[in-house]
Every structure is written in C-alpha cells, then in structure tokens.
Amino acid sequence: MTKPILAGALALATSLALVGAGLAQSAGGLSSLRGASVDEQVPVEQIFQQETQRFNREYRQQPPLIPHSIDQYQIDVRANQCLGCHDWTNAGDRGAPTLSMTHYLDRDGTEMDHVAGTRWFCNQCHVPQANAPELVENTFESSTGR
Ligand code: HEC
Ligand code: HEC
Fold it and tell me: Domain 45-133: which topology?
C-alpha cells in the first residue's frame, strides 16, 4: 500500500520541481520579439499605422495588401463586412475593386454567385499594408524586375 503512495509523492515532487524550473526560466532572460517580457502587453506604436497609397505586389500570386484600415469590419461565421463593398453585387456602388473570379470558385472549380467558403476569412490571405520595420531580419527580395 505504501509503495504507490510513495511513487505518487515522488511524481508530484518531480512535477513541482519542473513547474519551478519553468517559472525561473520565464523570469530570467525570455522576452518577446519587441523586447518586452513575455507577460507584458505591448501597445502598437504610431509607426505601424496604415499607409494609404497602394503597394506593388512582390510576386505575381501575392494576395494584394489592403490599402485601408480593417479595424471596424467584422468577419465571423455568419457576417463578413468586407463583402458589403467587395462582393460583385456591391462593388460598383461602393467604388471598390470586385473580388476576382478565383474567389467564386468552389473546391471543384465550379463557378458560383456567392463567395467560396475557402475565401470567407479574407485576412487569412490579405493583410493591411504598413511600412513597418521587420521584426525578424530576413533577406526577402521582390520577384519583380527579374
Ligand atoms: C467601405 C467599403 C469597403 C470595405 C467594407 C472594405 N473595403 Fe477593401 N477596398 C475598398 C476600396 C474603395 C478599395 C480601393 C482603394 C484604393 O483603390 O486605393 C479597397 C481595396 C482593397 C484591397 C486592394 C485590392 C487591390 O487590387 O489592390 C483589398 C485586398 C481589400 N480592399 C480587402 C478588404 C478586406 C479584406 C476587407 C474586410 C476586412 C475590406 N477590404 C473591406 C473598400 C472597402
Ligand atoms: C486563400 C487566400 C485568399 C482569401 C481567403 C481571400 N483572397 Fe482575395 N485574393 C487572393 C489572391 C491570391 C488574389 C490575387 C489573385 C487573384 O485575383 O486571384 C486576391 C485578390 C483580391 C482582390 C483584388 C481583385 C482584383 O481583381 O484586383 C480583392 C479586392 C480581394 N482579393 C479581396 C478579398 C476579400 C474581401 C476576401 C474575403 C471575402 C478575400 N479577398 C479572400 C487570395 C485570397
């Protein structure tokens, strides 16, 4: 009877020691990409604000960057406010570019009148453009002009 209890106590002690080590690690030296400690909230700086002129695409298949703010536009299972301007049924009235045909093809390539489920969550592919310094240094080069 005592053996399982002992084993249990040992396991508990080991996991407590592990948790302790984890805490010690997060306190010492770990920081987020912006240099803050991991549990600190970093408010977005002005420098990351939107650029409104259009940026060129960096490669032919790139989803175009969004040249306007999207803070107010809800996208969830039922609602997609982007479609209020970009769907083919509204784009003319709103003076917005119409979604290209690829957004109306289902997975079998069938053309539809409503946007495809695979294109519902616009910001999976499209992100607002900003002239922000890179968080991680990289050697990316545009494929234009090659
Ligand atoms: C109130 C109307 C409106 C809403 C809502 C709206 N847009 Fe736009 N969008 C525009 C207009 C107008 C332009 C063209 C701006 C320009 O030409 O400078 C545009 C441009 C774009 C472009 C660039 C297209 C290109 O060919 O370069 C993308 C991508 C885009 N919007 C995505 C979105 C997404 C994603 C949402 C929802 C989160 C959204 N828009 C919501 C009006 C809207
Ligand atoms: C799976 C990725 C993906 C999703 C999701 C997606 N798009 Fe796109 N979008 C693209 C790509 C890639 C292009 C450029 C090539 C093309 O037209 O297919 C594009 C092009 C566009 C354009 C420019 C069309 C033109 O002819 O210039 C607009 C506007 C746009 N998308 C808006 C949206 C909106 C609004 C949504 C959400 C309803 C959305 N996209 C969802 C990938 C995506």
Answer: Flavocytochrome C3; Chain A, domain 2 (1.10.1130)
**CA angle (54 as vertex; 100, 71 as ends), nearest 5:** 80
User: If you count them, how many residues does the chain have?
Assistant: 146
Q: Which tens digit of pLDDT belongs to each residue from 60-97?
A: 999 999 998 898 899 999 999 999 999 999 999 999 99
C-beta 57 within 6 A of ligand 2: no
Q: Where are the domains of the chain?
A: 45-133
Q: How far is the CA of 123 from the centre of ligand 2 (A)?
A: 9
d(CA 91, CA 86): 5
CA-closest candidate to residue 120, choices 112, 129, 130:
112
